[in-house]
Amino acid sequence: MLHLLLFLVFGFACVAGAINLLVQRHPINSALSLVVVMGSLAGEYLLLGAEFVAAIQVIVYAGAIMVLFVFVIMLLNAGEEERTRGSRVALLLGLPGMLIGSVLVAWLLERSPTPSVAAGALKGDPQTIGWLLFHNYLLPFEVTSILVLIAIIGAVVLASPARMEASAKKEG
Amino acid sequence: MVPLSYYLILSGILFACGVTGFLIKRNIITIFMSIELMLNGVNLSFVAFAAQWGALSGQVFVFFVMVVAAAEAAVGLAIIIAVFRTRETLNVDYVNLLKL
Fold first, then answer.
1. What is the ipTM of this complex?
2. For all residues of chain B together, what is the average pLDDT?
3. Domain ranges, ordered by start, for chain A
4. DSSP characters over chain A
5. Is B9 helix (H, G, I), strand (E, B) or coil?
6. pLDDT(B18) > 60
7. Which of residues 53-92 of A touch B (CB under 8 A)?
8. Which of B10, B63, B71 sits opposite A151 (nearest CB)?
9. CATH class of the structural domain B4-94
10. CATH of domain A1-100
11. Which of A41, A130, A166, B55 gets the most CB atoms within 10 Å of its CB?
């Protein structure tokens, strides 16, 4: 009973944050509602017993990635978005399609019998996850480090002002 | 005890909200945040299925998805900064050339 109650509380916060992200027109408000979504998703992970995933959800997603977003919004001084014709067409076609699709999926999932999941069904503590990462998934883990290195270099090259000046010089 | 389908429905709602945001939003940063929302929705179904099958691999995959999302956020925001420097707008309707 308590499990269901907690699930509903966190789930409601999730959906409310996601809808608020769509409704808000200023990007900073959208970013803060995305933090709410990620925080309550961490709660859902804890309910499922995924302790490690919940911790890195808060640290990496709600912490690092969202700080990066907020930093860029502040840096570019992003204002309220303006409505254009393209967004109205997408609204008219996309919103009913999304509603029909999600109702259909929910109906199908409700009809098909699925087993119940107990609170903390599968303990995903850091020790077990770490063991899996460094034994069964050692190669993907190492490849990931190369990916992150490439991302760092790419971000530095893309955002560096020197490249902008070079391309401006070439044109003019 | 919560049925697995509840978690999947929640994950589906989050993914649908992400798709909708991707379609209706015109600010490039908000579009990027919608992509993160979709990734989060998928992560929830990964963890839910991991709990159902008793397979911890699902939670390891969530870890990998988060790493890819972090790398993607860094590169994507760098691209956004580069676009803003050359166009001085964040509206995707005015960004219609691949050329910088």
1. 0.91
2. 88
3. 1-100, 125-172
4. -HHHHHHHHHHHHHHHHHHHHHH--SHHHHHHHHHHHHHHHHHHHHHTT-HHHHHHIIIIIIIIIHHHHHHHHHHHT--PPPP-HHHHHHHHHHHHHHHHHHHHHHHHHHHS---EE-TT-S---HHHHHHHHHHTTHHHHHHHHHHHHHHHHHHHHHH-HHHHHHHHHHH-
5. helix
6. yes
7. 53, 56-57, 60-61, 64-65, 68-69, 72-73, 75-76, 78, 81-84, 86-87, 90-91
8. B71
9. mainly alpha
10. 1.20.120.1200
11. A41
| Closest chain A residue to B72, measured at CA | A151
Interface test mutation site (partner A, options B34, B81, B86, B94, max chain A beta carbons within 10 A): B81
A162 vs B51, higher pLDDT: B51
A129 touches chain B (CB under 8 A): yes
- Residues of chain A under the 70 pLDDT cut: 83-87, 162-172
- Beta-carbon separation of A137 and B27 below 8 A: no
| Per-residue model confidence (pLDDT) at position A164 | 62
Q: Say yes or no to pLDDT of B41 above 60.
A: yes
> How many cross-chain Cβ pairs, A to B, lie less than 8 Å apart?
247
Domain locations in chain B as residue ranges? 4-94
This prediction has a pTM of: 0.88
pLDDT tier, B4 (very low <50, low <70, confident <90, very high otherwise): confident
Contact B29 A95 (CB under 8 A): no
